[in-house]
Design goal:
CATH topology of the largest domain: Immunoglobulin-like
Helix content: 10-25%
Largest sheet: 6 strands, mixed
Strand order of the largest sheet: 16-15-9-12-19-18
Shape: rod-shaped
Mean pLDDT: 90
Low-confidence stretches: 1-26, 570-586
Structural class: alpha+beta
Number of helices: 9
Number of strands: 41
Length: about 575
Amino acid sequence: MRMQSQTHRTIVSVVLLICTGTLPSLAQEGTLKIYVTPKQAYAFVDGRAYGEATLHALYLKPGDHKIDLYNYGYLPASASVSISAWKRTNLDVTMTPILTRIPGPFGAMTIEGANRDAVLLNGKTPDFFVGHGDEFNHDWGWKQELVVPPGTYLVTILAAGTGNEVWSGSVDVPANQRVVIDIPKGVRKTVAWPRGEQLKDKIGSLARFSVGTASADVAIAKPTAQLSVTNAQLNCGDATQLKWSSSDAPQVEVTPVGAVAADGEQTVQPQENIVYQLTALGPGGTVTTSTTVNVNTAVQADLGLSSPEVHYKRVGEQVVEDSSTALNWSASNASKVSIEPLGAVDASGNRTLQVVPRKTDPGPVDETVTYTLNASNPCGGAETRTATLRIVGSIEPEPTLAMRSVFFPTDQPVRLKSDAALLPSEKDTLKTIADEFKKYLAFKPDARLVLSGHADERGPEAYNKPLSERRAELAKRFLVEQGVPEGDIETQAYGKEKNLTADQVKQLLDQDSSLSAEGREKALRKLPNIVLAYNRRVDLTLTPGDQESTRLYPFKTEDFAALVRRDVPETEGPVKLAAQKKRIAN
């Protein structure tokens, strides 16, 4: 390094001021005096190359300024200063040395004509500063050279004071060769550099920065970089931690993350197989490293039914059988799961299904319902599963209870325990009613039968009322014998209180489709007797609903004659009947 006189420093300062156009305003500016270790440090003011920090005072406009100090082999130092007009500000800085040494192989650069202009390798920001032209300008006597790893470099020269680019170009430096660059013409020659091999063999490594009397060696380090992930095998949606470190590289980028700090970590959540590549760029070259993360995009899914068939039965509006089944499903490596027709669901679960057939009209039911599971993830994985449920059964109309009134012979029964008064045709009628009513109870358990006894108009009420009661009770007892619950039957007796009139009987005869015209005419000729026969009956009423039995007289039964005759049968005997009438009269 050449010795500098105070006169020379002053001349350089004035030249710098002229170059920057600051001389006319000199009287309005303040000065900044930097005291820095090492004294060879180079100053950048507000991002602009200014010159050697200790060579002369810096003339700056009043206000705040950012001062960056660089010397290769030391950590950069920054400070903010406030400059006042007409005043001097001092800045004391001690930079921290980087003690790691640089191994070979080596090549070298000699840069002529750059004076004290800033020299940058592989970048155009201050971070890529390696020294100034006066440190690398000869290879005779005392050496002043830039030692670099073999490779190709972008060399940029920035003018001291203005920071303007003087020259920039690509320079190829082979091992053990010295490249001479003439600024601003460019590369002038490449010559053998035996000292590079000697340095490698004898010393093995070089200090990053060393200076002597009129000598300087700056050895540039090749960047290093490491990149890793905590988990290289992921399912879709999982995250992993990307970690990296680098040295001697002011510009670090991780693809596809972007620009990053020299060291750090970041959570990443890739959606496909990906290679992360770290590129570290520094004055000593470029180094890359990569790591691969594999993403499992496949979706696994399952869908099933605990029973593939359910049974359904509806009678009228009442569902009497409606079995259920359970739908079970699971999906892994999926972020979105839905089941048609249920909608969105959790990744795994089960649901009890009670389905209603689409069919609504009476008839057999045999339908299927298909459940479709769709599972997917944002990584493009998708899976579909189906399960089919069969619905079998029937839809039946609401049951009705067909009933006709039960008819009795004259004056029968004489006593309650005698069932001779129930002729075979009427027993058959009651048997049919009993069978149908028991089925009806299965559908409507709250149903009841009300039996209403009647007697014809002959005889006093004191005789007819008990007679009608015995008729109702006899019909009830017979129904109970057929299996009808006794508690579901009520009885009541009207005697002759609600007798049918002749007109009502005529109307019933007209409505009786079982009668021929001749039969109807014959009945009308004996209408008084037929009216009596119609009133010797038990009517049945089904509750709730108050459905009444039809008063359809059994004209075509074999025992019709015994039912319709108006006198007491001989089997009962005139003496017994006379005795009954006498008891009533008394």
